[in-house]
């Protein structure tokens, strides 16, 4: 109570803001604040000094076997100082923070005072019985509405509530039942809080209902990425116009040139090697012996049927293909692989894995499930297990490019391409310690197609694993080029594939939605198109490097002299 009384007496109750300009009162406030700072500094220094002194003395006593309860006069004084400084600091920062508000302040005024600081200027005065005047903060309450959407008075009140924290930003969609308005209000709140303009980030013209609960949380607009087309890509006897969403100049043009060269030589062919998404939980036992027992159980072919039936209950498309366990001490990593129809399948395989884990607990009740994913999957990370075993769709694509096409379209020769591929894509990548990166720029094409077709962009990491091979054939006249991609992770249903723009791009390729005739056919076809496009991109870029045209073409097509800073969509 003494600390409370002292703090309240130290801060006279505020008066009308007009009286705050009196120099005498301001001088009193500054003097009091300086004295408080000085007192705090003294007690802080005293507390840590005596604490260090006592710890040092007690260590000496332990070293010399002196009883700790035997204290000298200096140690007694240090203990008293330690207790006194601790009491002061606890009183000032514990009781004082609550007592700094007069009893007659409303909750709103107290909350504002806390946000404004421990002693705002508008709360300084001389009359201890006067009601404090609350200063208004323009940064908090000046609502900034999006330029292309006029907010009503009611909407502005909601914005203020979001800014103050009374209404959580994430709950706007459920509260308003209007995703478009929720995005506008959230956008206005963000501009108000940050003081930064979002002009140039489009708000209107997007269906926010389509992303609710599945694609993006707390939207405030959408980013525009231009979509170009390369092709036609002649693959397995069918022509495809390939959509590519990118902001990198030359990429679409270069891929298009590769498509032209491949088309002039009769097209490319592809083979799907395997199709299976993976998920690998990590479980732990009390001993490595017990973990090994589960490993042997999973590897026994006699147990696979029961595990498969349990796994397949999760979906009518999920079909367990294999189980690959790996042990590390008493921890076991179990890599499940299954087909997932036309979906990319991460959620599908995760549900099946959970079913199997629940089933295994019947025979292995001491199994401790650490995580549904133990990174042995391995998702969105460069990993040797994906490079060797594959994940998603494994595809190889090849083409034979005629000598005259190499010279006329690609502006180089077969011998130069073969040598460059060996020294750059193979030897150079090996020197760099590349993992799945034995190519020129596979990730460029993969990322562009993924963005255009609604795939998960982060899975570009393992989906871009690729080895590009080139060799001279037909007595050294023609070029055989191939790309082998073991982990292309794509789907034509779910996630971003349902959005209008991405759905249109899938429709352009003829793989929109699920295949009615053969489940999984559309996603498998999309994977081969990705590989065929990578083949075209590799062929064109390697030719540009071999011909010494890379820098020249990028300076021509990847630089803009236009001032686009004033262009607003």
TrEMBL record:
Name by which UniProt lists this protein: 3-hydroxy-3-methylglutaryl coenzyme A reductase
Residues that span the membrane, as ranges: 33-55, 76-96
GO biological process, one term: sterol biosynthetic process
Keyword terms, alphabetized: Endoplasmic reticulum, Glycoprotein, Isoprene biosynthesis, Membrane, NADP, Oxidoreductase, Transmembrane, Transmembrane helix
Pathway the protein contributes to: Metabolic intermediate biosynthesis; (R)-mevalonate biosynthesis; (R)-mevalonate from acetyl-CoA: step 3/3
Matching Gene3D superfamilies: 3-hydroxy-3-methylglutaryl-coenzyme A Reductase, Chain A, domain 2, HMGR, N-terminal domain, Hydroxymethylglutaryl-CoA reductase, class I/II, NAD/NADP-binding domain
GO cellular component: endoplasmic reticulum membrane; peroxisomal membrane; plastid membrane
Lipid bilayer topology: Multi-pass membrane protein
InterPro entries: HMG_CoA_Rdtase, HMG_CoA_Rdtase_cat_sf, HMG_CoA_Rdtase_CS, HMG_CoA_Rdtase_eu_arc, HMG_CoA_Rdtase_N, HMG_CoA_Rdtase_NAD(P)-bd_sf, HMG_CoA_Rdtase_sub-bd_dom_sf
Domain of life: Eukaryota
Region (Disordered): 1-25
Family: Belongs to the HMG-CoA reductase family.
This enzyme's EC code(s): 1.1.1.34
Organism: Vicia faba
Gene Ontology molecular function: hydroxymethylglutaryl-CoA reductase (NADPH) activity
PROSITE patterns in alphabetical order: HMG_COA_REDUCTASE_1, HMG_COA_REDUCTASE_2, HMG_COA_REDUCTASE_3, HMG_COA_REDUCTASE_4
């Amino acid at each position: 109570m003494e600390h409370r009384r002292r703090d309240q007496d130290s801060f006279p109750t505020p008066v009308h803001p007009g009286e705050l300009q009196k120099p005498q009162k301001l001088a009193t406030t500054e003097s009091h604040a300086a004295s408080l700072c000085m007192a705090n500094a003294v007690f802080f220094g005293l507390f840590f000094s005596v604490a260090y002194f006592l710890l040092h003395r007690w260590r000496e006593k332990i070293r010399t076997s002196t009883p700790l309860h035997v204290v000298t006069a200096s140690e007694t004084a240090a203990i008293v100082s330690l207790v006194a400084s601790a009491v002061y600091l606890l009183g000032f920062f514990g009781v004082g923070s609550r007592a700094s508000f007069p009893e007659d302040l409303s909750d709103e005024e107290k909350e504002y005072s806390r946000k404004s600081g421990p002693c705002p200027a508008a709360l300084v005065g001389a009359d201890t019985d006067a009601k404090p005047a609350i200063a208004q903060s323009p940064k908090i309450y000046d609502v900034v509405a999006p330029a292309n959407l006029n907010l009503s008075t009611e909407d502005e009140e909601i914005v203020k509530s979001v800014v103050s924290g009374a209404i959580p930003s994430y709950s706007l969609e459920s509260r308003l039942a209007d995703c478009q308005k929720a995005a506008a209000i959230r956008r206005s709140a963000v501009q108000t809080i940050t003081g930064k303009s979002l002009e140039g980030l489009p708000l209107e013209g997007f269906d926010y209902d389509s992303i609710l609960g599945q694609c993006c949380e707390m939207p405030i607009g959408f980013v525009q990425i231009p979509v170009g087309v390369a092709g036609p890509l002649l693959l397995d006897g069918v022509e495809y116009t390939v959509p590519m969403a990118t902001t990198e100049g030359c990429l679409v043009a270069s891929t298009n040139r590769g498509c032209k060269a491949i088309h002039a030589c009769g097209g490319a062919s592809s083979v799907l090697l395997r199709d299976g998404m993976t998920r690998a939980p990590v479980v732990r036992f009390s001993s490595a012996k017990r973990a090994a027992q589960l490993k042997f159980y999973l590897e026994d072919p006699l147990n696979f049927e029961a595990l498969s039936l349990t796994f397949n209950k999760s979906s009518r498309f999920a079909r367990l293909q294999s189980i690959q366990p790996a042990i590390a001490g008493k921890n076991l990593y179990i890599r499940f692989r299954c087909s997932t129809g036309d979906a990319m399948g991460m959620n599908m395989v995760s549900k099946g894995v959970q079913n199997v884990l629940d089933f295994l607990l019947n025979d292995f009740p001491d199994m401790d499930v650490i995580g549904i994913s133990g990174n042995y999957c391995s998702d969105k990370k460069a990993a040797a297990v994906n490079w060797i075993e594959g994940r998603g769709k494994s595809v190889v694509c090849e083409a034979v490019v005629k000598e005259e096409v190499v010279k006329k379209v690609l502006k180089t020769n077969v011998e130069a391409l073969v040598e460059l591929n060996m020294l750059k894509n193979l030897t150079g990548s090996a020197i760099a310690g590349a993992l799945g990166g034995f190519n020129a720029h596979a990730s460029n094409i993969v990322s562009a197609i993924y963005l255009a077709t609604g795939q998960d962009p982060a899975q570009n990491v393992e989906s871009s694993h690729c080895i590009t091979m080139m060799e001279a054939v037909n007595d050294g006249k023609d070029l055989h080029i191939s790309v082998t991609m073991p982990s292309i992770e794509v789907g034509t249903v779910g996630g971003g594939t349902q959005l209008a723009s991405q759905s249109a791009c899938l429709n352009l390729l003829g793989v929109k939605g699920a295949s009615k005739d053969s489940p999984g056919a559309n996603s498998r076809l999309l994977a081969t198109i990705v590989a065929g496009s990578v083949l075209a991109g590799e062929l064109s870029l390697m030719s540009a490097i071999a011909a010494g045209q890379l820098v020249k073409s990028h300076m021509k097509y990847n630089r803009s002299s236009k001032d686009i800073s004033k262009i607003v969509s």
